[in-house]
Predict the 3D structure of the following.
Amino acid sequence: MLGSWFEIALWKRILGALVLGVIVGIAWGPGAESIVWIGDLFVRLIRMVVVPLVFVTLIAGVVSMGDPTKLGSLGFKTLTIYMLTTLAAIIIGLTLAAVLQPGAGVDLSAAVPGQVQQAIPLSERLMSIVPDNPIAALAEGNILAVIFFALLVGVSLLAIRDKGRPVADLMESSGEMMLKITQWVMEFAPFGVFALIARMAGTQGVSALLDVLTLAVCVVVGSVVHLVVTQGFVVIRLMLGLSPLQFFRGARDAMLVAFSTSSSSATLPVTMAVAEKNLGIKPVVASTVLPLGATINMDGTALYVGVVSVFAAQAFGIDLSMTDYILIAGSTTLVSVGTAGVPGASLFLIAAVTETIGITPEQTAVVIGFILSFDRPLDMLRTVVNIGGDLSVATAVANWEGEFDREIYDRPLKD
């Protein structure tokens, strides 16, 4: 029986756990809370490997480049396409919100105001990239600071050449070790996913979405359009000439984990594993582009924040001009870069965007309180969009940098 279990493709086991979790959660109700520890254990296991995996694989990736100047080319291309795909997601969200009018006629009088977090200044975000203490950054899981320090270590190893070879070999071996640990952790994924989804269905359900059906439709349709059109058709098909279907097949394990955990950061080890194993993205790109994407590339978050901002304006009777929409697009792009890759983080950054169109902090708090009850299902979906964006950009950069294995990409996957 155990052998038969492992013969089933992992994505099928995870998908089956998702479906079973919804059924059990609905039937069990709030009692499903009692098994959430299984899901929490799974999340802790994959978060356990995030920081060491990013650190050692990034150093090994930089060393494998052989030339520090290649890092600048890779970084420029990565940041450029990340910003462009994020802007595309925002435009899709704003267009749908303007057409479908999700906030028109909505009564917010019964909403309990939620907490509004002050936006972190961009200068402070940039300063935090340079750690006061690299060891503390590793311990705290500050991914951007870890990336910065790992890049310095990798470039220094290139600079000292043969003297750094023992450390470089250690980092390469450590990267292989961390990927093997990630593979073991993923075998626990179906059980963790089952518990997380059962808890969500039992305590929240999806009935809350009916209260704001039009807003939910905007987010769902926008997410699907961005995944299929922007990432699948424009990036994968038009720009790279690859099969979008093969891309989504290769990315499905990471997307299913993203859906269940609602966390880009927690999904990162799985994202890196499928990038190399299924999509043919070589470690030099996977170890640099994907950790960066988990912290700054938030397509789904950007789309959601844009839609909610327009929803808020419509609910409070604020007429938006084209200038207002441009302000929303620009500020949402900046805000999405600073969004933590954890569940629900985007809710507390909405204030930074709504303030630009004249919505007061008190009104924003009312909007946040109104959408809190149904945010989790939509958070799960937008995390899938975030992960899809990370992988599509990594695939593009790998192609452009000559770090892509077409044979692995086209190889039939186990169904």
